[in-house]
Amino acid sequence: MTSTNGFNTRAVHAGQTPDPTTGAVIPPLYQTTTFAQDGIGQLRNGYEYGRGTNPTRDSLQAQLAALEGAEHAFSFSSGLAAEDALIRAALRPGDHIVLGNDAYGGTYRLINRVLADWGITNSAVDMSDLDAVENAVNSGKTRMVWVETPSNPMMKITDIAAIAAIAKKAGAMLVVDNTFATPYLQQPLSFGADVVVHSTTKYIGGHSDASGGAVILNDADLAEKVGFIQFAVGAVSAPMEAWLTTRGLKTLGVRMDRHSTNALAIAQWLQGREEVERVYYPGLADHPGHELAARQMRDFGGMISVSFKGGEQAARTVAESTELFTLAESLGGIESLMNYPSEMTHASVKGTELAVPENLVRLSVGIEDVEDLIADLEKAFTNL
């Protein structure tokens, strides 16, 4: 297998050489914490202790790097663990981060409340406004620009190449959270991003059964620093989590095709409902980022946000009235999920400039039959 192979070929085969001992097509799960040494300091194939290295995690990391078109990938126990490791590897007290003003609440909490005590400062801006980004970036102090595209949950689309140019001019690195789009729909490194991060808990794992995160990059010096943090701090993905994530990643392409098809149909249905104030989905022609998303992404993904004319009560009613759409945190699984961000995923940013409208719900559209999903929503709407 080479880097010229197609995405789905790489997803199935990267890091997945059959077991040399038995010929097992699926590499075994190395559920072990330590490895026998052939002598003092004589490690067998470099394996010593599970926090440092594990063949199952190595396989996942090879897979992740191949799919983002990168040289290095590191797998962590959660998306936030990955983000924390990256920031501490790349920044120092006094450094400044510019991030989107509708970033994931957990990312903002990490940067604004946890790392602020370490001396990291931040500014939140509308990433779709390039002038605002350029004004927020302080040459010499801003060391990192943080982008989500599509953003969570307002589904804003950011021009990765344009932001990369702004960051480079200021001497800052561009980090793109590619969780919503996945490497199947979008490859930020090819547009000039320096680092990609993922919550692999979401679409990459795809089955709501394995938590994880990833940092993916090309820069060898920064990779060495991230790898050291991974080893020294130890927030690594456990062998079972890594094995399940690898299993899910192999079908990412076919799943994202179905997620995207279903989401577009539901977004178009929502547009025709009188109860709906606005539908936030980049696949719709009237979305302000539609043309950019069409250039930057293979398809438009499975995430939709929708605001209701009936305000907070209408949003809460719908969120609590569906059956196939399960009211739950998280996203990106094969099953459809409903989320009320203001009180759930983004509760930590209430009262800040990142606060989510109280009349908004977020849909993670699964791979079920779309007719059944629309019927489920239609039934919930009868309670309004």
Automatic annotation (TrEMBL):
PROSITE patterns: CYS_MET_METAB_PP. It holds the Pfam family Cys_Met_Meta_PP. Its cofactor is pyridoxal 5'-phosphate. Residues 1-24 are annotated as: Disordered. Keywords: Pyridoxal phosphate. Belongs to the trans-sulfuration enzymes family. NCBIfam families: PRK07811.1 (NF005871). This is Cystathionine gamma-synthase. It comes from Arthrobacter parietis. The lineage of its organism: Bacteria, Bacillati, Actinomycetota, Actinomycetes, Micrococcales.
